[in-house]
Queue: 4 jobs
Job 1
Amino acid sequence: MKLLILGSGPSATAASNWPRAPFDHILAINNAWQIRADWDDLIFPYDFPEDRQPEDLQPSQRLIDQTHFVPAQNAFGGFVYGGATMAFTATYWALHALKPEIIAYLGCDMVYPKTGPTHFYGQGTADPLRADISLRSLEAKSARAQCYAARQGCALVNLSTERSRLTFPRATRSTLAGHFPGAVDPTLMAHAEIMEERLNYRTPTGFHDHIDADVTALDAIDALWLQAARLSSAA
């Protein structure tokens, strides 16, 4: 399966007139369902306003909320380590539920300029600007997702041409078939997992604001994920 994940970044509107091919499945995040009508799944957090959700669903369309994605992300270590942004949550849910071979991202760059539009619909609230222990390094969370995807035989690529916090290789629709799971370091990946297990910052509900985290330890884990994905520094 080739999966397209559509975020709400300004670049996401490029997909509005794309043909369905080469994608087999489209997963929209939050407001991105408005970009094209043929999405398959819409994923959103508990506080996504009802009046922004689609009213009429096709039989093939599903709404994915916290009852679906919290168990999925917990299966990959939880929100503290995996990153509490919907882009990464969508990734882990997709790896868990859809088992794709390729995940291509558009509008998920998580770059929010001080001037100009931050989202395809204008100005919006940006998750990565929150003071959250899981968002200290978006690049490390990206590398972590890349490692877990590679373990599952899935390649992650970024279709955006804009500046991005995602560390995935750049791609185009026509070059998707030429991308394969990244070469990750299994020893470093195992070391990062052991360190996560020792810290045990588990968040079964998805909420973790109560955790008095050892940020030094979290930063050390982030550095390991970057190295495991063979990324010597932040993108």
Note: The first helix runs from residue 66 to 74.
Job 2
Amino acid sequence: MKTLLSLLSIFVLLSAGCTVHEYKVIGQEVHIYFKDKKAEKVYVLCSLDEYTPRQAIHSGAGIWETVFPSDEEFKYFYLVDDEVLVPACDMKEKDDFGSENCVYNPLLGMR
């Protein structure tokens, strides 16, 4: 059943036409998937590494993936083709620059 739900989630992500942001916790890692068919380069900036740009891996079909530890809370946003992007996420926090960051909380999952 878990495998079926995982496959269904990835199918929904792949079939969506617009920018999509999803995640999956696998063991001790959280895999963050970002879909943007038009993007040429995607970076994730995260509080775990002091917002140093971390290049997302392009896995085809416009899907970009980044992996972080799943046991720590962190804040993050994307840099897509040199433009800041904060995706739709349930849990956000204001930053010191008047914008927002998404928040991953291991007790709540991606919010």
Note: DSSP finds one helix and eleven strands in the chain.
Job 3
Amino acid sequence: MRMNRRRRLMGEINVVPYIDVMLVLLIIFMVTAPLLTQGIEVELPDAASEPLQDELEPIILSVDAKGKLYLNLGDNEDQPKEPAEIVRLAATVIQRKSDIAVLVKGDENASYGQVIEGMALLQRAGANKVGFLTDPEAVNFFEPN
């Protein structure tokens, strides 16, 4: 005796391929995210400070451990810039947007004089207020551990 059973069609969605695609995308984003960071590698000093709440991208002058100056304006942001070029580029932006934040990102191992020289260049370009970027991990220097 032969039994003839009919197969029923499944009315469910197979989500396994979607999960596979999502895992592949997750791995791609995890690999490419570190490559998207911009700027010069600088070891910032620790200080207690509030994060900036500004809509405009600030002008950031970076001073590396060797004293080379970098500006996040113009072409080749990862190439050192001459002081005259820094003043020219910063002055152009400051004249258009007078309320833009101007910051100095000095390496912890850079000399104090090199960081101050960078700050003076920004003031020469027309910046009234120049701030300093620090590492967000706050270290309290006034209380013993």
Note: The CA atoms of residues 28 and 34 lie 11 Å apart.
Job 4
Amino acid sequence: MNLEWLDLPELFPDFEQPGRWLPLLERHAALLEGASTRVRVTSVAPAEAVRRQYAESLELLRVIEAVARGSEALADIGSGGGFPGVVMAIARPAMHVHLVEPLQKRAALLAELSRELGLANVTVHAIRAEEAGRGALRESQPVVTARAVAELRELVEYTSPLAQVGGVLALPKGSALERELAAAAESLTTLGCLHESSTPMRAEISSTLSVAVFRKTAATPAGYPRRAGVPGKRPL
């Protein structure tokens, strides 16, 4: 079942001032559509966009706020067209959102979207996750997320170096989650992360996605993340 824009305030009553954020989400969608001939950021059909991009991003934020209350910053790895990072920045203007996007055209689009939408709480980092994890963002973020980026054992190496000790990785995953969790055991141990919970998204938003939550319990070892490309070629 597809959702309409006006379904979102009913699904997310805890997100105050829908009269502010809903028009901004619609404007974001229009800007992405206008840029689609220049930069390809999604394969989601327009009829499914409200549910699969915007509702899923807001649902991820809802789960994050239940496990990491009061967090004032977040890093989104592989932001693409702004899912979930730009959506979260719109819904929570007091939260500073770091968008890490290695593809230069997409990063430029994210910066353009942020300006057009007046999002002063967004910083775009046009670098790979491995570079971000060794730079100024290392062990600085209370929450790190990533949507549709990689298998979990690889994804933990991209995301965990950015999280502060005690911080949270919140990673939406599909029906392969249990298999990926089993395969990622070594990666989680090596990188000091503990699987804390898996929360299914509400059925009206997604029948397949869950949010896997990991707590970072120790500092990232000095050798991680490995150099660009290595986590994908040789996952832990």
Note: The chain has ten helices and seven strands.
